[in-house]
Amino acid sequence: MTSRRLLDPVSRVLLDAADYIETHGWWDGQCTIEDGKVCASLAISEIIRGRDNYTELYYAAHDRLAGHVGCPIIPWWNDTHTAGEVVAAMRGAAVGSPLALVEEKK
After folding, report:
1. pLDDT of 17-40, one tens digit each?
2. Which domain holds residue 61?
3. What is the crossing angle of helices 54-69 and 40-48, to 10°?
């Protein structure tokens, strides 16, 4: 397994956001926290909340994930996939792994 210390900041944000979803639960359908559950975009936001470079990291993480999954609109992509697919894609985007998901609607 790759040490997070060896990864760039955006990769660490994506890995931490994937962990956040696994810990707090995944949400789809709207961009609000429901019982602590979060969508992919909100997980990224929660991980970097309060950082001086919030905007830069947020858009960089979003852009990397969007490029990895081939969809520029992460909230839409989140809502058309399962929690497992979202977490796997975030981890894959973080470490540069090919997308190994079966693209299926939930």
Report:
1. 999 999 999 988 766 666 889 999
2. 7-94
3. 150
